[in-house]
Amino acid sequence: MISRAAAIALAAVALGAFAASAWAEGALRFEGTLFSFSYPSSASTSPGADPSADVAISVTLADGITASVIGAHKKLAESALEEEATVWHGARIKNRAAWGMKAGGGPPRDSVRIGEKKWMRWRDRIGSVLGAQEQTMTCGGVSGHLVCAVVSAPQKERERADALTAQILTSLAIKKQR
Length: 178
Known about the structure:
Elements: H1 4-24, E1 27-31, E2 35-40, E3 44-47, E4 55-60, E5 66-75, H2 78-98, E6 102-105, E7 110-114, E8 117-127, E9 133-142, E10 145-153, H3 158-171, E11 173-174
Antiparallel strand pairs: 1-2, 2-11, 3-4, 4-5, 5-10, 6-8, 7-8, 8-9, 9-10
């Protein structure tokens, strides 16, 4: 049987190993008022804006791939998440049109499994003065809150955009509201 002191020491070593592996992979952690999530150390974060969400954080990679991590303060029933996510997606399309971007549409919404959760995903092709981009909006419920990662990248960078989405969403945690 392991003594309490030995168990604490072993836990500290394990925690240190976990932290070291996260550092070696180059991940940082964003800690906000509603949620926290992991993102690449080569990226920067800043406050964002969204036409529907209560909270928006922008994550920008050095090569210009961007993500908006958005969420709602209000808890929703599981049955209401898909409808609300669809409303948010529609608001983003209207917002892009208002800014003069051309939306080329994309495949219909699909369900994807990222980590242990099932998510809803829309892929839209958009054009602007910055050139053609693919905007992928992936939404689902975390602790009863609707959260989404909206990643914009050139279509040829879809794999990297999907990897950024997976990193953010699999690490996203809702903070306890007081």
